[in-house]
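ok new one. same drill as before - structure tokens go in, u give me an amino acid for every spot. 323 of them this time. try not to just spam alanines like last time pls lmao
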């Protein structure tokens, strides 16, 4: 496969810091552990990512104008291997200065006619380590775990695999096997080669990036974000998740597909990274506190939702679909 990749800068993530009161917290001694400093997200220009979409502003709760919506690539979030000081990143693709918005799905812009969020597992890009059946079932288990978190009437609907390719980001970056079409709200677009991740974080992003979630948002023709539910967040068009095939993937072992899929699906459902990263000076090991699925680095197998992750999820979805 011949793929044209764009070069972007190495970035670091601004992590959310929380009080360490949950039972999942890791005890941190300042004398034995060094907190790893983090930097703010950055803006990266990869060219024009706007895609015309045949959607009019004429639905319930909208302004009933003839304004046509477009979509654009807005941001990306990725998790790292957790074995170095490289931490998960946020990359913004539209330079709005200090006025970066959050992004969330809107019930007024459902493309499948359902208030639930749909997801699709693309089997066209399987990992060399596992068959498509094994990796797909691991991803399905991760999606089911999020679906079982009861905060509201929110639900996840699976779009059955029918051979369709997904991958707007892959398409934009020149992958002939990518697709410029909408498939589902959240798309597990499959495993990509090392070059894809080196392009996201040159020169060696493939050495520490495990998975990445890209967010596309609805925008007006003038580029302003659409916010149909008036919650102060840009309305999400779709999200795409890619996994790094340069790592050895496993089912129930290091690196565990279900664990990474659970993390990336958290991004797909609008959660950001969480926790502080520390390095233990005596043995050189890294750990997050509190330990959570949404830590910016991989900390071993985690296939259940703890208090911190549930709180973040419910803060996004407790009022759904009445945001």
């Amino acid at each position: 496969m011949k793929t044209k990749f764009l070069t972007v800068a190495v970035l670091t993530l601004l992590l959310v810091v929380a009080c360490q009161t949950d039972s999942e917290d890791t005890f941190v001694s300042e004398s034995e552990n060094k907190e790893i400093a983090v930097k703010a997200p950055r803006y990266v220009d990869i060219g024009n990512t706007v895609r015309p979409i045949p959607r009019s502003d004429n639905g319930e709760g909208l302004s009933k104008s003839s304004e046509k919506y477009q979509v654009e690539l807005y941001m990306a979030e990725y998790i790292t291997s957790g074995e170095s000081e490289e931490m998960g990143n946020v990359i913004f693709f539209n330079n709005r200065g200090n006025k970066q918005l959050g992004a969330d799905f809107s019930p007024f812009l459902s493309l499948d006619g359902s208030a639930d969020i749909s997801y699709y597992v693309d089997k066209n890009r399987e990992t060399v380590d596992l068959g498509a059946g094994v990796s797909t079932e691991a991803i399905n288990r991760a999606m089911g775990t999020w679906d079982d978190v009861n905060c509201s009437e929110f639900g996840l609907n699976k779009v059955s695999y029918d051979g369709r390719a997904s991958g707007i980001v892959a398409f934009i970056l020149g992958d002939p096997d990518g697709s410029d079409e909408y498939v589902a709200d959240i798309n597990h677009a499959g495993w990509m080669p090392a070059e894809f991740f080196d392009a996201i974080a040159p020169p060696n992003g493939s050495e520490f990036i495990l998975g990445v979630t890209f967010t596309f948002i609805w925008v007006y023709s003038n580029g302003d974000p659409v916010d149909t539910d008036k919650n102060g967040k840009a309305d999400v068009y779709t999200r795409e998740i890619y996994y790094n095939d340069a790592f050895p993937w496993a089912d129930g072992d290091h690196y565990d597909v279900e664990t990474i899929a659970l993390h990336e699906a958290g991004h797909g459902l609008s959660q950001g990274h969480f926790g502080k990263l520390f390095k233990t000076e005596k043995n050189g090991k890294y750990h997050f506190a509190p330990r959570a699925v949404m830590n910016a680095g991989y900390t071993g197998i985690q296939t259940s939702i703890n208090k911190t992750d549930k709180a973040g999820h419910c803060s996004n979805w407790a009022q759904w679909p009445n945001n």
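Residues 132-147 form the longest helix (16 residues). and btw The chain has one domain: 33-317.
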